[in-house]
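During the second half of the funding period, the structural biology subgroup turned its attention to how the target accommodates small molecules. The most pressing case was alpha-D-galactopyranose, which had performed well in the primary screen but for which no bound structure existed. We therefore specified the complex as follows and requested a full 3D prediction, including the ligand pose.
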Amino acid sequence: MGIGRLRDGLAPTPPMGWNSWNRFGVKIDEALVLETAEALVATGMRDVGYRYVVIDDGWMAPERDGGGDLVADPAKFPRGIAALARRVHALGLRLGIYTDAGTRTCQGLPASLGYEFRDARRFAEWGVDYLKVDWCHTDGLGPRALYAKWAMALHAAGRPMVFSICEWGRSRPWEWAGTIGHLWRTCWDIQPEWSSLTDILDRQADLHVFAGPDHWNDPDMLEIGNGELTASESRAHFALWAILAAPLMAGNDLRAMSAEVREILTAPEVVAVNQDARGSQGRRLRADADAEVWIRELSGARRYAIALLNRGSAAREIHTAFADLGITGAARVRDLWERAGADTRRDAIATTVAAHDAALFLVESS
Ligand code: GLA
């Protein structure tokens, strides 16, 4: 992709894992993190690619220690982060952690301004593999320079860490963050509501040109299994995040999820679209009232993922002609939710999509 974009091989496809924030907020502790890591293994999620267990805001003690280092809250993480990292690693997983670039985290805990090199070194010593750096309490600071300083600090710390930039898309990070971090948030915080999903989606429509291997747009973590999202809405969320080449960070309680939620999060052929080796982010091809067609080019010759999204509150037929996709000859179509060949017309994909749902197809033209 763009010249000068990061290409260090740490995130060749969008990072996948779990993050504590969406479901648990600051109510986190060692037991939750370990039980979640075990659930990633037991549910088969690790084996479809969910690798990073990320502890978000709320892990640190209210003050730095006497030496100036960040320390974990001793009540929540009595054995410390290094011990936790060892146990997470032993399960074949990786550990992620959170800090903030400003004077305090969004939850008012100690943050990293002026401590970038020291904190990066400490995270490296603990065995951290992924770092999210938030942007609260940064009045007067420039994100581009400060996140670049973080990239240097991580490099100096000497341990490969995926670097997740979280300044909510305010200063168009897609234009500069690709040389600095592996992913950058493009929007405000997601909520487990349909309107939040569609608002976020509308902000992604023009960003595909900025993403590629090791540098991804991040439309925020998954809400599948949270709030009142229905199965249809959850499928639409997951299908579109696959088209967007978005990082897939589950945000629900993995210890207690329904079979339906687990099946969505582990749908193998949908995950395969998200993780496609070509790393091209998809785009919106057509928006016609509540019916949208999204397309993502996949690796291999003339292979595409097509999402048919119904934003309306009643079921409707959505179709797209192969000609609109640039396909002239014959094409094979596979339904990636059903994991079966799709029964469609010779010159088009056409299907009935339930309210707030998305169908997802693989189209291979010969
Ligand atoms: C911000 C971020 C969220 C989460 C919280 C934690 O709102 O955007 O993803 O990290 O802070 O306080």
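Two results from this model are relevant to the next phase. The first strand starts at residue 16 and ends at 19. Residues 285 and 324 are 9 Å apart (CA to CA).
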